[in-house]
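Weekly puzzle thread! Below is a chain. First person to post its structure in token form gets bragging rights.
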Amino acid sequence: MRIDMIPVGKNPPDSLNVIIEVPVGGEPVKYEFDKASGALFVDRILHTPMRYPANYGFVPHTLSPDGDPLDALVIARSPFVPGSVVRARPIAVLNLEDEHGGDEKLVCVPDDSTFPYYQDVGEKSDLPEIVLQQIEHFFTHYKDLEAEKWVRVGAWGDADEAKRIILEAIERAKDAKGA
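Winning reply:
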């Protein structure tokens, strides 16, 4: 896959492309795309036997403060195949800190043109509370059994905060390419 050929989205920050690495309910295996080759590598097998609470991937042409593209969860009733590109809308962000520093997780739903089931979801408060609890629980505990790894779950941000983070990450990626 030529990741560099996939745009950040149709209308960022309102509509994004998310490249899926791990499907919802997937085995406790963390996959990551190698940005240079486009190959999907096994990053690690989670020591804590937990399944991903949402489809998990990243937004191309963004750069987080940790040096990776922005992480994104896509809430959906179905698992998406790793390597698929999903048009999605950001509705929230979960702020985390881990052994490498700040680590935001965008929470998105499929764009209305992809699947209108989520057309009335504009904020995290539009989701069932259990969905948010599952996401928070997953990220609180998924590194529990890995030596020298840790995570602290911080505050949730709304759709506007998620969009601000996206715009900053797009600019950071542009600046890094120009450097």
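Puzzle host: Confirmed. Bonus trivia for everyone else. The longest helix spans residues 159-178.
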